């Protein structure tokens, strides 16, 4: 009989945190990212001013 063991170490939770982070990233509208890039914002400014605030609300 096999059992599932959940680790409480930081390395054990890394996969769970990654899945939650990726799910939050999918919630950021592509149109908004595209509009920022058209307006001249680079990848870093788009991440700081659009992606992070949208993820924080998720």
Automatic annotation (TrEMBL):
Protein's organism: Cohnella faecalis
Subcellular location: Cell membrane
Matching SUPFAM superfamilies: MetI-like (SSF161098)
InterPro entries found in the cross-reference section: MetI-like, MetI-like_sf, UgpAE/MalFG_permease
BP GO terms, sorted: transmembrane transport
One Pfam family, short name: BPD_transp_1
Stored CDD domains: TM_PBP2
UniProt keyword list: Cell membrane, Membrane, Transmembrane, Transmembrane helix, Transport
Source organism, top-level taxon: Bacteria
ABC transmembrane type-1 domain: residues covered: 1-58
Protein name: Sugar ABC transporter permease
